[in-house]
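lol ok so funny story. i was supposed to be doing the assay writeup but got distracted and ended up predicting the structure for this chain instead. priorities right. anyway since i did it might as well share w the group, maybe its usefull for someone
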Amino acid sequence: MQLFRHIQPLREALASERQKGKTIGFVPTMGNLHQGHIALVELAKSRCDVVVASIFVNPLQFGLNEDWDKYPRTFEADSQKLIEVGCDYLLFPDEREIYPNGMAEQTRVIVPGMTDLLCGATRPGHFEGVTTVVTKLFNIVQPDEAVFGLKDFQQIAVIRRMVEDLCIPVAIVPGEIVREDDGLAMSSRNNYITKDERPKANQLRKTLCWMQEAIQQGCRDYLQLEIEGKSQIEAVGFRVDYLQVCCSDTLTSAGVDDVELTVLGAMYTQAARLIDNVSLTI
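and the output, tada:
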């Protein structure tokens, strides 16, 4: 695996790969890699000739009271995992390389509408930071395909809209959620969960599955389902950020005529904010 700290040398290396007719897959990450990330790299390898990963803890997508300072930086371990899975190139830039004019003067990419919902409602500015850095990374790598995990369902929906609106020639490929044995979605923030909380941290997943089953059995009172689901999560001691049955395409609240549904939820433990989702067709 070749490591690059700067943009131009990576561009030159990838230009050489394109001249050979090779397709390029891209997996952007913030590091602290777990098996979920590795599965995304494996998916990219199965679809493309060359795989590029990036590690950049993007300050632009963290709010004032969020965990940018304490977000785990585990570069050596991450590099080893990427080498073992057969990643070809790794971009590991510093903040100045990505934001050479400073974040305050950085041109922003904004996807209106769906970024104000769900995670966007309680994390103002988060998706603006995501779409801005992803656009920059797409321009740097110029991949044929980019792979993102479905755990961040809203993020994938926002990036798909951005790519469509800005005519960016990148195919967005979803990677399935990788879970712990008890169903908890793998996340870099799972390390924040305390030992006392961990046995019940899969409650969000349990509640989403319960809501999915109720809908499959014919329930269409989505508001009541959301109320009962929140009660389930609160009953074991966690605080709900949101729990909502959505139209999969628009992420707006689902109506009785919608066929493609996604149930999305977020909850707070003492020190972690966990997200998850399930999708279904009715």
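The chain has a mean pLDDT of 96. The chain has nine helices and nine strands.
back to the writeup now i swear
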